[in-house]
Design brief:
Strand 1, helix 3 and strand 2 form a beta-alpha-beta unit. This protein is about 30% helix and about 20% strand. It has one domain: Vaccinia Virus protein VP39 (Rossmann fold), CATH 3.40.50.150. Helix 2 packs across helix 3.
């Protein structure tokens, strides 16, 4: 039986500096969080959502079914094995989800309103890259970064200082809220972190 939890060593060896651990985020918890953000920030749907490291695509597929506020849904997966499994699992569905095989670091995130990373096993370096990349996208409309591991506060402070000193462009400040989320590897809910700018 195929499993998104296991990928061949040959594939891991192709990407020695990448993170390959897998677990699932509860779809209902994520859908509820998205609805909360829509209401709190008075966002007009549709909202574009991207899952950075989507594994077998279950979260993306479930969100398409659960949440009417979403427009474009994209799942990005570095592992070819997981990406192929994802496409196979949903080959006969009527899904309009965009499945991408590749490195999310090299992608353009500007079209997405919510960027999600189940980053608990990502290295500090990868988490820093995610935060830096997200902070550089067009923030004129609310753009949210949701993570399961809190991002480095010293880096957030550095980015906020850059935003504050930016005299020629719109100034922003990164804010963070903590919420509870169910995940497959824990019995109890865990914290998730929502980053946004104002």
């Amino acid at each position: 039986m195929e499993s998104a939890f296991r990928i061949p060593k040959t594939e891991i060896n192709k990407f020695p500096n990448k993170d390959h651990t897998y677990g699932e985020t509860d779809s209902i918890s994520m859908s509820n969080l998205i609805n909360y953000l829509v209401k709190k920030f008075n966002i007009t749907p549709p909202i574009n959502f991207i899952d950075l490291g989507c594994g077998d695509g279950k979260l993306c597929r479930d969100l398409e079914l659960l949440n009417g506020n979403l427009g474009l849904i994209t799942g990005v997966e570095l592992s070819k094995t997981r990406h192929n499994l994802c496409k196979k699992l949903y080959a006969n569905s009527d899904t309009e989800i965009q499945w991408i095989h590749g490195d999310f670091i090299n992608m353009d995130w500007n079209e997405y309103d919510i960027i999600y990373a189940c980053n608990t096993c990502f290295s500090e370096h990868i988490n820093e890259i995610i935060l830096e990349k997200w902070s550089k996208i067009n923030q004129t409309n609310p753009k949210f970064l949701i993570t399961l591991k809190e991002l480095p506060i010293d880096q957030i402070n550095k980015i906020n200082n850059k935003f504050k000193s930016n005299k020629n462009k719109q100034r922003y400040v990164i804010h963070m809220e903590s919420h509870k989320m169910n995940v497959s590897w824990l019995k109890d809910k865990t914290n998730c972190f929502v980053y946004y700018t104002e």
